[in-house]
Give the backbone structure.
Amino acid sequence: MNSSTVSSTPLAEFHLWEKMKRRRALISFDLELTGRCNNNCKHCYINLPAQDKMAKAEELSFKEIKEIVDEAVSLGALWNLVTGGEPLLREDFFDIYLYLKEKGLLVSIFTNATLITKEHVKLFKRYPPRDIEISVFGVTQETYECVTQKPGSYADFMQGLHLLLESGVQVCLKTMALRSNFHEQPEIARFCRENTQECFRFDPFLHLRYDGDSTRNMDIQSERLSPEEIVFLEKSDLKRFEALEKGCSSLIHPEFPDRSPNHLFHCGAGIGSFSLSYNGFFRICSSLWHPDCVYDIKKGTLSDAWHNFVPRVRDIRSDQRKFMERCSICPLLHLCMWCPAHAYLETGELDAPVMYFCQIAQTRAETLETLRGSFLT
């Protein structure tokens, strides 16, 4: 984003930011162990082949991970998410997991479950994770492997999931809402709720690739649902729609909240948490890959990144007219998928509007307004 500038901060915002800087307590962090995966999902924003030697060579070593974890804990970290790629591909996964537990961290794991063995189950039984989140891409072999593009992955997934559920380890199931599994979404939701005591969530938003791969981005875009299909799914999910009904009056704001309109970051990114890529790049959220928002931890320290780099990123402003007159003052922001990180992945700019996001927000708003009208009548 060539037009972003750092300008003077309004007095009220200045006091708020000074208070936040004084409290700079770290609560949690995401740790990507690898960018590699044994599946090849069409929609994935990060995956590289499981045998990718270059990607493997770039991964942080166990020694480097320990040093980062030590510093994170010294800064106050209590919770850690282990993710990837597929984190179980790491040959030293057991060592890394045990070290995280030894440091007293609450550990969550994102995995596709296809590599789960009895040895993993023994580890998790003896040193329980906070939870293990598993993606369910389909409940039939045809649908599941249409997404993963990996023959045999459905059987491996079911076996791994069965081992975990049978052991009593805390498991949460989730899914991505894709073109390839749209027809199976009701069955996926039912399967997840039946197997995890109602612990289920789905995500209709597909990130574009972190590496900018144009061919893979076309695959991702081909898997995206239309705004109408997304809202249909949300209405079909009783619990999710009840939450929208409850928050209907507060989600659509007739007036935008009182804040500096040229400030890009109004989310919680970097306030209590950070994300670290498998090759050592620190970001205030996992999706944020703009060059001005990435810190190479191998050339600095976590403390410097946390105390000095994060405030600079959080203070990035925009003087782009298209941002100031659209996204910055849009009353549907809370119904929108737009954020600076997503905008950069979509357009190459942190402050550019994204028409697909606008259409989703508008469709959600129209649905909620219709619902509100039906309540009033």
Observations:
- The radius of gyration is 21 Å.
- Residues 1-18, 251-259 have pLDDT under 50 and may be disordered.
- Residues 143 and 181 are 6 Å apart (CA to CA).
